[in-house]
């Protein structure tokens, strides 16, 4: 049993209805609605009968809409009594009628809440309340408003919101890809954020393409960073979704839309999903369908985003986010056509080629033929160039059915063209012609040139991106290389990744620290904060070079000062702390801002070694001098200030475009020019004692070296970024000077001091490791700035502190070690492997060498499969300083295995595999090298055996291009051989065929030739006319380009005379001769020639002359006589003329007639020159009635049309005046009563006459219609009666005369049968037959009688009298003993009446009936109503053809059959021949006319009933 719970409506202030409008009760009963999401509160426990609380049958739907659009919510509520509906919103009121309007439609019972011109501040959660006295129902709905041009990143605006404590707007979500309009100024070489977003959503196979597109070349670094970002992104995604899979990038669908897909499960179904394009949120719909451009729909677990009505501006970067986490990113690019496909005209059985060039590489285009997608196969070849810019479609073996429109589609861009296939007229009928080897079509332009130009543009853009990234990295490396000489440990900044060495650290021991002394942690590229440790005296070590995302600051020294925060490559500001004496520490931070030193206690500012974009300069000391401006990576000049004694401060580390040089000290020497990254040479000045100043940090292309001091030693050569070796000189005490900061390709190391220790090797940007030497007290020198792939760390000083490990930009961590009071080795001096082992494949019997390179000279041991190796047995192990080599003099199978080199706690390993290069058998190679010769259309097969091997790759090539299995190529790979089959070879398939066997040890190739024999190509044109006379024509041509694989044997020449269709063979000439003399020509005639080339394979296509060639010169005939007009009519003008008097000795073959309309100047030819009029008269039918024309005639001979005759007199196209006359009229017409009467009379007259109709010489009645057309008049009586029978007269009259014609029209019907028939014998052998006249006898003067007789002998009815106008008839030869019967019919023009039967006459007429002795007999009746045995059939005869229509009818007595056309009886129409023979009713039409079409009906009627059938007749043109 369920218990109802009383609840309190929890509507907050401002969210529900106002108290003054609602006197709602606080306590109610919660009810469940049938509509999800509706909350119902019922005020009383039990409702009265017939009453109900409010409820929603249709709730409002959440809406996402663009700013400025019309937004509305609709709801339908129920309840009794009728509820009142009120709308509200969570944050704000809805009382403004200009912005919010509530409406109600009583017809549809819909409540509407409208917001015209919606604004962003109206985005909120809205509530709809429906209430009556028994309860209330409430539902919420969300309105999202997309701002026009809304940008997700609005930092200035958000800062203002934070200042105003408006955190709601600040917490709005942002897209990680910033819109282009709000992109900050990108630093040189900075990678676009789209790069990482695309990689995280792409397949691994697409990594290389994306890296090439964005100019990233360091794949190892990219993969490492990508894995870190993927782990972070997956952790973020796990908070909102699970099972994210099946990411499909955006693509164009066949219906013209674009879409991308992904699958995932939302942990919270109410989570919001957002879509972005180039960082801007875009509105989409789930329910509005085609009303919005973008749509996101869900199918199961799959989410599909689609766009319709694609435009070029739709290209961009699309992202799908769930709440604040990106789920998928894809780039939608538009590809355009640089060269579009062109129309192709191909002959039958020829190949057609469509080709195009696109603006960006694309692996595949979508090809369509006649609206059907095309794929690679036997009919079509789809080809793509190596740069993927040129695309071709080859339609093979074109037939007439292949013609149509073909299209190439690349995204939303497409181009199309026609393929026109012309039938081969020269092909023999009924036989299939051979396939042609030629190709038709192409673009007509140099596609390769266009593609190369486009590829150069793409390569240039790609190289520019690479150069920017490279320049940015070099700048970062140089910036990090700036070091402060005063620091104990050099802080280099090398970012060289070094060689990819497979190194395994065997023993990673950490140095325990029992004191409070920690080494400096310099230049650590950590994501955290790089800070110095605490020294033994309580101070913190320098935090130099920390490339942290946070702030790099120094620690606190024992005396209370903060340690130097040098080299901090922080995004923030790197500043020094305050020393005990009140001064600030050095601010050597590589900040984007200005790095400046603080003020010391004596009033001078601290050193400003900041790598700022501005100018880094030193402050002024208390004694008046400026502080050092060390390390300033400014775009300007970094120079030292002037000290109080007049000397300039050191200008160290100035990465200026100019020259960095030291100033002059008071004693006359120049200040140190350290760190000057000038394009020139950075060198030290000469000190007063004669020595040169230090030339530290000179990034010159030359050698940076120190000068010689007065005591004989050389000055320090620190920081020389030379291509040579930067080394220190030798001091007077025997030690070498410091070689600090040498950015050389060689090794930068310190020399040995007199006390036995090595000098500092700071800042060595070498590919090897930069390490410090050993000091006399046993400690190692500082290994600062080592840009090695190994670990750069500081060593331990004698006092127990660790040396500075500054500037180690290593792939590992650069950190200082710790030790107790006894000295430990510096971490920067550990041995390392700079070049390790890798897997190799060695050829059996050949030597192999493995090399390991160390960064120091140390011993090592070699192992094979765990067993130690020593020299001997074909193996030599050598060591040259730091290079260890293992040499195998002659590799054997036993030498295969895993080799390992171990040196101390380091090791590297690689596997060696011994094998052989594939090889062919000499006999097989000899057989394969023989050419394969086939004919066009045949298959070519190649086979090559080989020894079975593992990891063997077999490839086939044709003319250097690898062949793939598919289409007309079939490749079979067996363990011991491979076969290549080329189907339906074309002439273009001829070339070099090569097979390649490849394994890890090498490759071997075998070559053969494929020769495809075919008919030769047509001779090369054009045909040149060498000579033309009245008796000779000589022509010349060029040999064909393609001889079909075999030499041309001869040429065949044919000729055609102009005006004739027959080609005549003239003969043939040898292949060496390419000219022909035709001596059988007639002067003045024109000839066409065509030439064929012939080889053993057959005849080529012909080369035909472009124009006819005339024999001799042109001779034209003189003018004919002036044309005369013989007769004229409105449709024709007849002309005649006389032949020309002078035909110039050339026979005339015909004439050409021209006409000119009056008041015009243009003469129009009525016949072409090649269609001459052979006679001297002509009927001109191309005239307009009433127009006037004049004519002229030209004589035509073999040379053409001669001079024109004088024009004729003007002739008007009209009929001559004539008296009216009637043409073949009918004078008698019989019509069945009730049918329409149509009397048609044709006439001729000029001018048109006036037509009058009379009935018995009286005017016709008004209901009789008269229809007059040109040349014909028609009298129509719609429904005739017997009274319409009369003589109708037509009268035609014009100005010339008049004519009359009478037509008798008789309207009648089938007559009624005569009266009773009586028989009387007057004389022996004769019987008088008399009858009562038919009632129609008085009405129809053409009625007569027919008598039929039947006797018992013949038992047949025969007509004995016809056309009787009397009512008696005497029958003769009446014999006794025979029964006779007579029938009398009345007959008129419509047919016979029913018969009148006579009594029986003869032997049985007086017989007494015989009794049947009580046995009653049944009378058998054969009478039956009519029925249709065989109905009419549908007929569709052509116009003018004959037609025979028939059906079968049965009935007793014999039914009367009538034929109807469109419900009009046609039994008496003479256009139809109708018969009825023993129930077979037939109708015959001699020539079918258009008006014969319609519905035909046969009606059979007798005294017992009626039957009918019908059909339709359609007359075809």
Polypeptide structure, described:
- This protein is mainly beta.
- Helices cover 6% and strands 35% of the residues.
- The chain has seven helices and 89 strands.
- The strands form 20 sheets. Strands 1, 2, 3, 5, 7, 10 and 11 form a seven-stranded mixed beta sheet that branches. Strands 30, 32, 34, 35, 38 and 39 form a six-stranded mixed beta sheet that branches.
- A hairpin with a 4-residue loop joins strand 8 (101-105) and strand 9 (110-115).
- The model is unreliable at 1-26, 150-174 and 484-828 (pLDDT under 50).
Q: Give the strand tally.
A: 89
Averaged pLDDT: 73
For the sheet with most strands, the description reads: 7 strands, mixed
Radius of gyration, taken over Cα atoms and rounded to an integer in Å: 57 Å
Q: Name the poorly predicted regions.
A: 1-26, 150-174, 484-828
**What general outline do the C-alpha atoms trace?**
extended
Helix fraction by DSSP (H/I, runs of at least 4): under 10%
Which class do the helix and strand fractions yield? mainly beta
Number of helices: 7
Percent of residues in β-strands: 25-35%
C-alpha end-to-end distance: 88 Å
Oligomer classification? single chain
């Amino acid at each position: 049993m369920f218990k109802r719970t009383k609840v309190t409506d929890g509507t907050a202030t401002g969210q529900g209805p106002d108290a003054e409008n609602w006197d709602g009760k606080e306590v109610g009963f919660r009810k469940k609605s049938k509509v999800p999401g509706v909350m119902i509160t019922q005020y009383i426990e039990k409702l009265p009968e017939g009453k109900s609380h409010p409820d929603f049958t249709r709730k409002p739907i959440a809406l996402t809409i663009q700013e400025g659009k019309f937004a509305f919510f609709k709801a339908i509520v129920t309840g009794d009594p009728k509820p009142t509906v009120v709308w509200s919103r969570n944050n704000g009121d809805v009382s403004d009628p200009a912005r919010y309007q509530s409406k109600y439609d009583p017809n549809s019972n819909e409540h509407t809440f409208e917001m015209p011109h919606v604004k962003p501040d109206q985005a909120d959660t809205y509530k709809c309340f429906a209430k009556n006295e028994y309860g209330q129902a409430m539902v919420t709905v969300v309105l999202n408003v997309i701002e026009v041009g809304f940008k997700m990143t609005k930092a200035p605006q958000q800062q203002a919101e934070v200042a105003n404590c408006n955190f709601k707007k600040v917490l709005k979500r942002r897209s990680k890809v910033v819109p282009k309009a709000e992109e900050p100024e990108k630093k040189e070489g900075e990678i676009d954020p789209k790069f990482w977003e695309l990689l995280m959503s792409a397949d691994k196979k697409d990594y290389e393409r994306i890296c090439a597109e964005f100019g990233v070349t360091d794949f190892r670094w990219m993969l490492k960073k990508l894995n870190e970002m993927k782990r972070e992104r997956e952790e973020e995604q796990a908070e909102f979704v699970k099972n994210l899979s099946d990411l499909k990038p955006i693509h164009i669908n066949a219906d013209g839309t674009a879409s991308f897909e992904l699958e995932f499960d939302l942990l919270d179904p109410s989570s919001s999903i957002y879509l972005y394009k180039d960082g801007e949120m875009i509105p989409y719909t789930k329910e509005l369908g085609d009303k919005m451009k973008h749509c996101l729909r869900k199918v199961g677990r799959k989410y599909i985003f689609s766009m319709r009505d694609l435009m070029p501006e739709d290209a961009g970067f699309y992202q799908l986010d769930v709440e604040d986490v990106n789920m998928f990113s894809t780039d939608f690019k538009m590809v355009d056509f640089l060269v579009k496909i062109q129309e192709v005209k191909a002959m039958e059985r020829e190949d057609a080629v469509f080709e195009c060039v696109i603006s960006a590489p694309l692996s595949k285009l979508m090809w369509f033929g006649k609206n059907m997608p095309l794929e690679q196969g036997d009919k079509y070849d789809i080809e793509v160039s190596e740069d993927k810019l040129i695309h071709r479609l080859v339609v093979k073996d074109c037939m007439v059915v292949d013609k149509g429109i073909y299209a190439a589609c690349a995204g939303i861009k497409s181009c199309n063209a026609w393929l026109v296939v012309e039938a081969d007229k020269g092909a023999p009928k009924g036989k299939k012609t051979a396939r042609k080897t030629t190709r038709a079509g192409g673009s007509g332009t140099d596609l390769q040139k266009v593609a190369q130009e486009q590829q150069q543009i793409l390569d240039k853009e790609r190289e520019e991106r690479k150069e920017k990234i490279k320049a940015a990295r070099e700048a970062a490396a140089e910036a990090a290389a700036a070091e402060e000489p005063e620091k104990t440990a050099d802080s280099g900044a090398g970012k060289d990744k070094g060689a990819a060495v497979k190194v395994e650290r065997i023993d990673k021991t950490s140095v325990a620290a029992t004191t409070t002394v920690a080494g400096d942690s310099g230049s650590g590229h950590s994501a955290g904060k790089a800070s110095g440790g605490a020294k033994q005296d309580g101070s913190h070590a320098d935090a130099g070079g920390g490339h942290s995302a946070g702030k790099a600051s120094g620690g606190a020294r024992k005396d209370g000062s903060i340690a130097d925060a040098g080299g901090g490559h922080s995004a923030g500001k790197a500043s020094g702390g305050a020393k005990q004496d009140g001064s600030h520490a050095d601010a050597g931070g590589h900040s984007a801002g200005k790095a400046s030193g603080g003020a010391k206690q004596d009033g001078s500012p601290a050193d400003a070694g900041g790598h700022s974009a501005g100018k880094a300069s030193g402050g002024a000391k208390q004694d008046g001098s400026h502080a050092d401006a060390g390390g300033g990576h400014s775009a300007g000049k970094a120079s030292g200030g002037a000290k109080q004694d007049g000397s300039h401060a050191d200008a160290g580390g100035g990465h200026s475009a100019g020259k960095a040089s030291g100033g002059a000290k008071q004693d006359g020497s120049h200040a140190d020019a350290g760190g000057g990254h000038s394009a020139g040479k950075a060198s030290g000045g000469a000190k007063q004692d004669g020595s040169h100043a230090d030339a530290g940090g000179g990034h010159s292309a030359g050698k940076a070296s120190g000068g010689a001091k007065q005591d004989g030693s050389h000055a320090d050569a620190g920081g020389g970024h030379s291509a040579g070796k930067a080394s220190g000189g030798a001091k007077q005490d025997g030690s070498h000077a410091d070689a600090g900061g040498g950015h050389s390709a060689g090794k930068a190391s310190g020399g040995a001091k007199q006390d036995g220790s090595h000098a500092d090797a700071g800042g060595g940007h070498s590919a090897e490791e930069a390490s410090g030497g050993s000091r006399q007290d046993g400690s190692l020198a500082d290994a600062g700035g080592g840009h090695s792939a190994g670990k750069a760390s500081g060593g331990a000083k004698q006092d127990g502190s660790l040396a500075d490990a500054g500037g180690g930009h290593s792939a590992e961590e650069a950190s200082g070690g710790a030790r107790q009071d006894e000295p430990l080795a510096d971490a920067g001096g550990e041995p390392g492997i700079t070049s390790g082992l890798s897997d190799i494949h060695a050829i059996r019997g050949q030597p192999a060498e493995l090399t390991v390179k160390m960064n120091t000279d140390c011993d090592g041991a070699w192992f094979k499969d765990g067993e130690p190796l020593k020299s001997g047995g074909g193996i030599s192990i050598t060591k040259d300083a730091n290079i260890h080599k293992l040499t195998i003099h002659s590799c054997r199978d036993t030498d295969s295995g895993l080799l390992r080199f171990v040196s101390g706690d380091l090791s590297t390993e690689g596997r060696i595999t011994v094998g052989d290069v594939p090889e062919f058998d000499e006999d097989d190679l000899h057989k394969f090298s023989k050419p394969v010769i086939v004919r066009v259309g045949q298959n070519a097969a190649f086979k090559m055996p080989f020894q079975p091997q593992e990891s063997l790759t077999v490839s086939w090539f044709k003319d250097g291009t690898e062949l793939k299995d598919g289409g007309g190529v079939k490749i079979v790979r067996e363990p011991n051989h491979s076969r290549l089959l080329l189907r339906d070879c074309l002439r273009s398939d001829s070339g070099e065929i090569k097979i390649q066997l490849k394994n890890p040890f090498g490759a071997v190739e075998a070559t053969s030739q494929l020769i495809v024999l075919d008919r030769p190509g047509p001779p090369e044109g054009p045909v040149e006319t060498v000579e033309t006379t009245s008796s000779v024509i000589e022509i010349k041509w060029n040999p064909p380009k393609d001889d079909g694989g075999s030499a041309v044997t001869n040429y065949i020449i044919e000729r055609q005379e102009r005006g004739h269709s027959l080609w005549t063979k003239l003969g043939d000439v040898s292949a060496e001769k390419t000219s022909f003399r035709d001596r059988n020509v007639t002067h003045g005639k024109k000839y066409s020639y065509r030439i064929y080339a012939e080889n053993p394979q057959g005849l080529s296509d012909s080369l035909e002359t472009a124009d006819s060639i005339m024999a001799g010169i042109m001779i034209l005939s003189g003018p004919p006589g002036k044309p005369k007009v013989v007769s004229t009519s409105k449709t024709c003008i007849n002309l005649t003329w006389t032949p020309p008097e002078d035909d110039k000795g050339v026979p005339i073959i015909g004439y050409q007639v021209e006409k000119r309309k009056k008041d015009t100047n243009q003469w129009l030819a009525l016949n072409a020159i090649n269609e001459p009029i052979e006679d001297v008269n002509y009927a001109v039918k191309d005239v307009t009635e009433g127009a006037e024309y004049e004519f002229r005639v030209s004589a035509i001979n073999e040379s053409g049309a001669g001079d024109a005759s004088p024009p004729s007199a003007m002739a008007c196209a009209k009929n001559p005046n004539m008296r009216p006359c009637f043409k073949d009229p009918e004078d008698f017409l019989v019509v069945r009563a009730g049918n329409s009467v149509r009397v048609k009379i044709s006439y001729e007259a000029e001018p048109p006459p006036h037509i009058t109709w009379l009935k018995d010489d009286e005017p016709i009645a008004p209901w009789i219609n008269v229809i007059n057309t040109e040349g014909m008049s028609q009298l129509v009586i719609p429904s005739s009666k017997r009274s319409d029978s009369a003589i109708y007269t037509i009268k035609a009259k014009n100005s010339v005369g008049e004519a009359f014609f009478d037509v008798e029209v008789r309207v009648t019907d089938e007559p009624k049968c005569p009266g009773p028939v009586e028989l009387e014998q007057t004389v022996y052998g004769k019987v008088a037959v008399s009858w009562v006249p038919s009632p129609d006898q008085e009405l129809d003067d053409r009625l007569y009688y027919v008598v039929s007789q039947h006797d018992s002998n013949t038992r047949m009815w025969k007509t004995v009298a016809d056309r009787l106008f009397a009512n008696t008839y005497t029958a003769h030869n009446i014999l006794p003993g025979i029964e006779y019967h007579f029938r009398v019919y009345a007959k008129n023009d419509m047919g016979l009446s029913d018969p009148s039967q006579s009594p029986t006459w003869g032997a049985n007429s007086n017989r007494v009936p015989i009794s049947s002795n009580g046995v009653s007999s049944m009378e058998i009746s054969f009478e039956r109503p009519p029925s249709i045995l065989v109905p009419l059939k549908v007929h569709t005869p052509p116009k003018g053809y004959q037609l025979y229509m028939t059906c079968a009818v049965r009935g007793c007595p014999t039914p009367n059959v009538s034929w109807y056309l469109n419900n009009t009886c046609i039994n008496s129409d003479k256009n139809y021949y109708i018969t009825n023979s023993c129930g077979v009713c037939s109708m015959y039409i001699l020539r079918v006319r258009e008006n014969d079409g319609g519905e035909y009906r046969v009606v059979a009627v007798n005294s017992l009933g009626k039957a009918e059938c019908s059909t339709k007749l359609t007359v075809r043109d």
